[in-house]
Design goal:
The chain is an alpha+beta fold. It has 3 domains: 28-342, Glycosidases (TIM Barrel), CATH 3.20.20.80; 357-432, Immunoglobulin-like (Sandwich), CATH 2.60.40; 452-575, Galactose-binding domain-like (Jelly Rolls, Sandwich), CATH 2.60.120.260. 22% of the residues lie in helices and 29% in strands. The chain is built from 10 helices and 28 strands. The strands form 5 sheets. It has an 8-stranded parallel β-sheet with strand order 7-6-5-4-1-10-9-8. Helix 9 links the parallel strand 9 (270-275) and strand 10. Helix 5 packs across helix 10 (323-339). The N and C termini lie far apart (56 Å).
């Protein structure tokens, strides 16, 4: 092991020496400058594509659970059998110009594609992995190279997704616990032999790479994670990375998968990634396409909270997209062609959530514009929760169409008139004479008895993996909490400080443990098993002290190695004095 790590370090040093001269000449830029194009863009295309598009969700005639790219895992398919799908992968209808052109038509400013997913198949001409799109398929073309070149031509930023820990085709990769024919080696050996050389190649041979999108962090040695991070930033100093490399590397932005955050995240930079249908990779039985209204709403919602929207499409094994996906992309593009000013280069709304749509903001040269994304035009009037008394309101797509405004106790009311200019999202530009003075809602906190009862549906989540932990409305609980990386928390206010007893209810057929943190104090709590996930039992968490009035966060963190999935609800903080 010591020799292996020494080799790994030497490999990293050689890479660093190779880029040191160029790096030393590179202009040093701040994080804000590096992230500027990304925050201005707001909208990008995600692509999940691999040989899993051949079985398209079915193995031996039976549909497998989860998204299509998980079929090797869910079907427990031996590597020798899975590799045969490469023989059938021949996407002769693929055209990079068409793909990039569709992204551009939709209004997307960047593209991220799976260079290697968990199955271990490389969708590029890998020098260290013969199980790749050039050497192992009849197609024999480097998809990544074609897309990288075309994005450069059409002015779209280009980035790679890479599964750094899970690799079901390498004996040192994590995740394959079903193929007993594989002669296991260490995870460090896998990184040295495959992951690190591939990352080096992707960042050396494909031009300017704007984004590197890691996925599913696992308990890897510090040396290999450090090496992956260091090589990435050394080879492409201006690159943007997400938060899924490892615990010590938060990346440049936080990742939300599938589910939109309920309120503006505390993180300065964040992104929602979401498939346009039900599956990330192509499934032949997946018809669960999101409506155009939902997609435009998600884009506006993310921008209203200062985040980006990375929308995934899934090509078939022929290299084409489903007609429904194309239809929706073009529909978004038609809306963006008229209204993109309300998305690009905008900032988060200064106001709390509204029930008629979303608000984005743009500040330029001392002037403030609020873009009111009106989804409920039939209401006849909308209220913007600001105290400003003077404002000019006009339709974004037709500045000559004006709207009357009136200041009141609840905010500034805009009187709508005529039919909705857009059948989904009509945008009104509100030009303010002064900086926006938001009317803040009363913060969530104690009742008249000093009790804080945490609403389960208001729970927030960190480090979500896959579909991830989420609110289960049918059971009114936090559920699907299957990964020990995931955390659950609430933010709240306290007006009457003191000592508090925290309790909850949990359900799960196996004993588990989590750590509860509040105001710098922590308690490790053992959770007894219950007969089922529906059988909730009370749980005493412990006593915490809050000495000053203010805003606080209570966090629930799984204990690594002792965690088993549970359902959680009825979290209550009761004063003891």
């Amino acid at each position: 092991m010591k020799t292996l790590l020494t080799t790994l370090v030497l490999f990293t040093l050689l890479i660093n020496l190779g880029v040191a001269q160029n790096s030393s000449k590179s202009k040093q830029i701040s994080d804000e400058e590096r992230m500027e194009w990304w925050t201005d863009a707001r909208f990008g295309m995600f692509i999940h594509w691999g040989i899993y598009s051949v079985p398209a969700g079915f193995y031996k005639g039976e549909p497998q659970t989860n998204s299509a790219e998980w079929i090797m895992n869910k079907g427990k398919i031996p590597l020798c059998e899975y590799q045969k799908y490469a023989d059938l992968f021949n996407p002769t209808l693929f055209d990079a110009k068409t793909f990039v052109g569709l992204a551009k038509e939709a209004g997307m400013k960047y593209m991220v594609i799976t260079s290697k997913h968990h199955d271990g198949f490389s969708m590029f001409d890998s020098d260290s992995n013969p199980f790749n799109v050039v050497d192992a398929t009849p197609f024999g073309r480097d998809v990544m190279k074609e897309l990288a070149d075309e994005c450069a031509k059409q002015g779209i930023k280009f980035g790679f997704y890479y599964s750094q820990a899970q690799d079901w085709s390498h004996p040192g990769g994590m995740g394959n616990n079903w193929d007993k024919t594989m002669q296991r080696v260490s995870s460090d050996a896998y990184v040295m032999e495959k992951a690190l050389p591939e990352v080096n190649q992707l960042l050396s041979d494909y031009g300017n790479i704007a984004i590197f999108w890691w996925d599913t962090p696992r308990a890897m040695s510090k040396e290999v994670v450090d090496s992956l991070h260091h090589v990435t930033t050394a080879l492409q100093p201006a690159i943007i990375t997400n938060d899924r490399l490892g615990e010590d590397y938060p990346g440049d932005h936080k990742t939300y998968e599938r589910h939109m955050p309920k309120k503006k995240p505390e993180d300065k930079y964040w992104e929602l990634c979401q498939p346009i249908s039900g599956s990330w990779g192509y499934r032949s039985d997946d018809q669960n396409f999101k409506s155009l209204e939902t997609l435009i709403g998600n884009l506006a919602n993310a921008a209203s909270m200062g985040g980006n929207y990375l929308l995934n499409v899934s090509p078939t094994c022929l290299g084409t997209l489903s007609p429904k996906a194309v239809e929706r992309m073009k529909g978004i593009g038609a809306w963006m062609a008229k209204n993109s000013e309300a998305i690009y280069k905008t900032q988060a709304s200064p106001c709390s959530k509204v029930d008629w749509g979303y608000i984005t903001m743009k500040k330029t040269d001392g002037n403030t514009k609020l873009y009111l994304h009106v989804f409920d035009w039939e209401a006849g009037k909308i209220t913007v929760p600001i105290r400003n008394k003077s404002a000019k309101a006009s339709l974004l797509t037709n500045g000559s169409k004006k709207f009357k405004t009136k200041a009141g106790e609840e905010g500034l009311t805009v009187q709508l008139s005529g039919d909705a200019p857009d059948k989904i999202n009509s945008v009104i530009v509100l030009e303010l004479a002064d900086a926006p003075d938001a009317i803040e809602p009363k913060p969530f906190g104690q009742d008249e008895n000093g009790v804080v009862a945490f609403m389960t549906e208001s729970a927030e989540f960190e480090n979500m993996q896959g579909i991830g932990v989420r609110y289960n409305s049918s059971k009114d609980c936090v559920g699907s909490w299957t990964n020990e990386q995931e955390r659950v928390y609430w933010t709240f206010s306290v007006e009457k400080p003191g000592k508090f007893q925290v309790t909850a209810s949990t359900a799960g057929p196996e004993a588990s443990e989590f750590m509860v943190e509040l105001n710098g104090q922590s308690k490790t709590v053992k959770i007894a098993a219950t007969p089922s996930y529906d059988d909730f039992k009370p749980l005493e968490i412990g006593t915490f002290e809050i000495k000053e009035a203010g805003s606080y966060k209570i966090m629930f963190k799984p204990v690594m190695g002792a965690w088993q999935p549970i359902n959680l609800k009825e979290v209550v903080m009761t004063p003891l004095n």
